[in-house]
Amino acid sequence: MRFLTKIQLPLVVLTILALGVGLWLVLTAPADYQQGNAVRILYVHVPSAKMALLSYFFVTLVSALYLWRRQETYDILAEAGVAVGAAFTFVTLASGSIWGKPMWGAWWAWDARLTSVLVMLILFMGLMALRNALDDRIKAARATAVLAIIGAVDLPIIHYSVVWWRTLHQPPSFAGPAKQAITGELLPPLLAMSVAFVLLGAALLVLKSREVAARRQWEAVETERLEQIHE
Amino acid sequence: MALLTVQDLHHAFGRHRVLNGVELSMEAGECAVLLGSNGSGKSTLLALLSTRLRVQKGHYQLAGYSAAQQGEEIRHRLLFVGHHTHLYGHLTPLENLRFFADLHGLPPQPATLAAAVAAVGLQRFSEQPVRWFSAGMRKRLALARLLLFQPLLLLLDEPYSALDVQGVAWLNASLDRFLQQGGMVLMASHDPERLESLPHRLLRLQRGQLSDGREECPC
Amino acid sequence: MPLLILLRATYRVAWKDVVGDWRRRATLSSMLFFAIAVLVVFQVAFDPDRQEATRLLPGLLWATVLFTSLMGLGRVFQAEEEDGGLEGLLLASVPRGVLFFGKWLGNLLLTVLVELLLLPLTLVLFNVDVWGQLPALIGVLLLGTLGLTGLGVLLAAMTQTARSRETLLALLLLPLTAPLLIAGVQAMAGLLDPSLELGSWMRLLVIFDVVYLALAPWAFGWLVAE
Q: What is the pTM assigned to this prediction?
């Protein structure tokens, strides 16, 4: 936790700079000859999708570490990772939807990627709901850690079952947003935004972890004070 | 080496420390009574010894088996009767005992089960669901599990509560026989007088540590 | 530990749950009536003719099974609440995975019993004449139920002490069973219409079953190890 406190400020400053550079590149890049200005949404959509997946991977990792080592730090990181991941997943779905309306003529298509990301959002929500619904801190930590691992096993199965479903049942009518070939002019803004989003993810994780840790400490102090009054 | 050894056992619930370096060793045939005020950690210690809680820091061994790795072996060699009786209301006494026997890998012997039910004076009710039983009857049935096998360690949490005079007499006689056969008994109890003539030593749990129970604390 | 002891312990846990349910007439009847109610809702909502009903049948059946199983899963660990039942189970000297398999087997038996009654009932109520396929349909249903109850019992253990646990159980179970629902519905559609794919969906069902029945006992052990 002390380490997080130290890197917090430089990380936040760096994130703001990177986001500034990234957004400037995105807004000054030429419009796509097929997609027009809608292509600019992808510069947000693609990095946030990657970050959403990375967040889930991170949550699974710290959950496994928690079950193995039983150190509260891992649980704090898991709780923070879920919140950050949920935010990225939501941005992914919203930006995909906004992009899809002019491109596909529909807000939503049941393709494998979108469906998997939607399930991932529900999983993140489920992890939050499960944690909130269990009063015992240690029980909540264990249950959410196990659920995260179950979800990590389920996500690929969901992805491939939807892929099969779409290809066997009816031929895919849409290509997902990320499937477009990325060529010369698109690359610099995309790279800049990817770097900025990785930094953003790290910064949010640090801030959220510290908030979670502080809240838990406050709750512990409050409980102790109440116990003393009680005695 | 003693049959049961506990070294430097610590336990905390979150930031709330309950046990703070408990040391204990017991030999075959020994009976110990655990004293301590409410919230002193008696139930936590019993839960740790029953492997219901996992050891966070320190060591606990029963007959050479370590709680950290060989929980199943330890559970196979102990019986825990606490505040809860772990009885299922819709099952009869016989069925409840059979459930216990099967979950502890004991050989299925209907005669032993029936004898255990009879020994605690419940044979008249052996076909009735436990749901209708009084607290004392439930307690007797929970303790009847002791007659199904010979564990190394018997952990009891307030065993005398809800028992009538006959129940207490039966329990003390059973404990006596159990100790004679080399079993160990560790019980948490507020009134050690109920043990009557059973030889026992007193242990006091205070500020997370065990000490000789005869030294009364000033509190 | 000898296999016989493990099997006997598994059987005893399942036996305790099924017998308990039978004596209290608790879960089985409410699951069945709930299933009928869901079927009525579907009939009223979609009002399908015969042809439509045949096409909709797989989806209707699986949706009904999913909702109905939620009802049974909500009660799996209720029996362990009276007088410290779960604590007692955890004091057993058999491995925790055995406890899971026992709870799973009990729930599986109840769910399958409901399904065996539900399937013919659906064919009658929706007036679908596929009686020749009945054994194969039951086979697909059973194959899916193995994984469904496996994952479900694990999630039931996870949400056992949670506030508003039934809602939470549904929130967690429904998205995670998406592959099962897809594969189960498609496999049944493949049975009813030979021009559709069947083999890969059966494979997917098997994969789902194997993955969850292999993972769940371990996960249950982590879940209850304090």
A: 0.91
